[in-house]
């Protein structure tokens, strides 16, 4: 019996990433209703976390262990993206995707989306972040699905 059961497979990460994506899209669609969110940063946080989980799903599909994801990368999306790219992750609009990802990673490191900060903040548009999230999810999904073990008929 192994010392540790692997409870965090690629599809687990992927489905959680989809849930964060859906929560971001749904809450953004309610912007003209009451009660409404006070800060758009919540939407950015949900999308950013979704993208991080999507990258982790891909790396799990490529047999990177959860401990390595946690200890080596933590929440660093550029490090995750570098390793994912080395393992052949291809995302549409790669140059713009990396620009947005790099900015989100910078802001995530100082926890900008989790806590209120007064002042001006330079962000990619929420629509660009949503589109990046969609590109990431669609690029990673096939690798996660390929890890399913289908019983022979």
The CA-CA distance between the termini, in Å, is 28 Å
| Element order: H for helix, E for strand | HHHHHH
Number of helices: 6
Low-confidence stretches: none
Helix content: 55-70%
Instruction: Give me the Rg, rounded.
Output: 16 Å
Structural class: mainly alpha
Mean pLDDT: 87
Can you describe what's shown?
The mean pLDDT is 87. The two termini are 28 Å apart. The protein contains six helices and no strands. It is globular, with a radius of gyration of 16 Å. The chain is mainly alpha-helical and 153 residues long.
Task: Summarize the helices and strands and which ones pair or pack.
Elements: H1 10-29, H2 41-61, H3 66-73, H4 77-86, H5 94-109, H6 126-145
Summarize the structure.
This protein has 153 residues and is mainly alpha-helical. Helix content is 62%, strand content 0%. The protein has helices spanning 10-29, 41-61, 66-73, 77-86, 94-109, 126-145.
Question: Can you give keywords for this protein?
Answer:
153 residues
